[in-house]
Amino acid sequence: MTRYRWFPLVIGLLWMACGGTPAAAQGNVWEPLGISATITDHPLGAIYPSLAVASDGTVVVAYVNMNSWIDDITHAVQGVADIDLKRFNGTAWEEVGGSASGRGVSANPDDTRYDSSPVVAVAPDGTVYVAWISLGLNGNGPGVLRIKRWDGNTWGEVGAGSASGGGVSGLPGNVVFMTLAVSPAGVPYVAWTNNAPSGLYVKRWDGSAWVAAGTGAASGYGLNDGSGTGQNPVMAFDAAGLPYVAYAFSQYGSYRIHIQRLNGDAWESVGAGSASGDGVSAPIDPEAAHSGWYPDLVFGPGDTPYLTWQAWVNENWEIYIKRFDGSAWVEVGTGSASTGGVSSTPAFFHHSQHPALTFDGDGILYLAWTELLGDSSRARTYARRFVSGVWEETYPGSASEPIDDSPVAGEIPPEMWWRPTPCAGRAIKLRCATCPMRPLPRR
Description:
- The protein is mostly beta strands.
- It contains no helices and 31 strands.
- The protein has a domain at about 120-430: Neuraminidase (6 Propeller), CATH 2.120.10.
- The protein has strands at about 5-10, 30, 40, 45-55, 60-70, 75-90, 95, 115-120, 130-135, 145-150, 155, 175-180, 190-195, 200-205, 210, 230-235, 245-250, 255-265, 265-270, 295-300, 305-315, 315-325, 330, 350-360, 365-370, 380-385, 390-395, 405, 420-425, 430, 430-435.
- Strand 5 (about 60-70) and strand 6 form a beta hairpin.
């Protein structure tokens, strides 16, 4: 039996890791965060990294520690996996209270669970929260959403049962996508997609229990109406602490980007039609079913929400972005949500995927993504920033010569691409741009 090893290509908010962003286009380079870029070097690999930055600049990364492998014949997952976490102490990557040894943060007492897809978030007071999907042995269902927090001394549950049994989502578990975010007031929220029943749900921690975030948000179809399913949810908060949830709405085999916000006790559209029909991502290619997938959401100067996603256009996946101007979703620079978008992939059948957004301390918007070659042989990381109405490279070559360029290992089942791109290597690595500016925290 061949044991393929899956390792993530670093994508997304790479510059957040070093507390800054390029001050000028010339002379900036991507360099390791620490003595080397390596965070972990597990014999069977590590996948699905999630990164967060505390208000004091401390970087934490959660990831799946693989004690499993992919069968080369059936493509089925064999074995178990745990959730680990490390933080950067200024010179090296270190575990936090046993978070990267033994069974890690998830700390399953036996070999009956396969923990996957972690998301880490840090509250304003420094409390670290880690949520994940816990599956059955060998990665088979049911999937439940579990969560723990680091209070400065120990890893503990966020309410009784949050990291055992049915967790926050409850049983029977059918969780397939989830996200975690902490409000400016320090309140953790989780959103998840169930496979059956097909719904999108949101809960928050009220200090003693996990409760529905809004009327009906944790029952029935949740934020959906039963005609389709919200997938790949992402969450962010405005300055008043109101949660916004963006997601890829799946209906009759097509995908569109929808977004809602909690107003009082009710979820509502953010602008006319943002949570119905084509939503924010009207099709660019009329022949393509997938006009919205893998969104990311961030608030910028003026408390303006910015929303990015990938869409299928002319045999390529491309990256698009819009912002809400108070009444409608509009482009961020000419062409950012039309034709080839921000990525504008020049080569046929190269796929720009998994976009991620952030703002630096000067209010400049940055967008990073991964490009997968059509034959799946290589995965690359690119980045641009929005300056004076134009999407420019963060430094010469950042959107034409890859920041990272790594070969992909083995035959990869399609479901392995639902999270940051696996590629060859023996470690999770993190690079950042040399710079003096600290980015704004992601709300």
